[in-house]
């Protein structure tokens, strides 16, 4: 049985370890150009800047944290200079041993419903176009919204949480600079180097209630 709850302070290290495990696949590591993924650094940094604590959730199975999602503040910059506040999300992480078991779906559905209940108007993000439409996402170009450079493509998606929230809104999507690999490579590399032995232990151990048991 999957349990979804808000992340707690004592979960931080475990969440970062799971995030690194989830994104340490060869293509992502190669793209990062620093010998590791950047996503665990993103999660760590979002807790201090732009991340939303009320939309940071962990997924548990039998009391063990095996997944995580975090949302952040973003906005649409209209041509006249005004801003429309929206949500971004990610990283969405599931421990490799628990992938393809519905955890990502559970985290998405739960977090979307909570975001609606908290009064947020829309979500925009970059992700896999073959996966996220099942939750109600469409290409952002349907709302005349582009990325920060003025481009559209299938991986750039949007969803209204309030009907009509994006009607008549057009402009560029501006997300937290924490998601920019080019800006954060050196900081992420330094963060990863300090992750050190504890991550190695976590990667070769069984986690119970967020505590690593070797």
UniProtKB/TrEMBL annotation:
CDD domains: NAT_SF. The keyword Transferase applies. The keyword Transferase applies. InterPro entries: Acyl_CoA_acyltransferase, GNAT_dom. GO terms for molecular function: acyltransferase activity, transferring groups other than amino-acyl groups. It holds the Pfam family Acetyltransf_1. Keywords: Transferase. Residues 2-162 form the N-acetyltransferase domain. This is GCN5-related N-acetyltransferase. The lineage of its organism: Bacteria, Bacillati, Bacillota, Clostridia, Lachnospirales.
